[in-house]
Amino acid sequence: MTTGIIGVGQIGSAVAEHLVAGNEPVVLAAKSESAADELAERLGERARPAPVVDAISEADAIVLAVPFDAIKELIGTYSSQLAGKVVIDPSNPITADGKGGFVRTLPDGVSAGSGIAELLPPDAHYVKAFGTISAVSLASAANRTPERAVLFYAADDDRAGSVAERLISAAGFEPVKVGGIDQTLRIEVFGDLHEVGGLEGRLLDADEARAAIAAAEA
Question: Is pTM, for the whole model, over 0.90?
Answer without folding.
Answer: yes
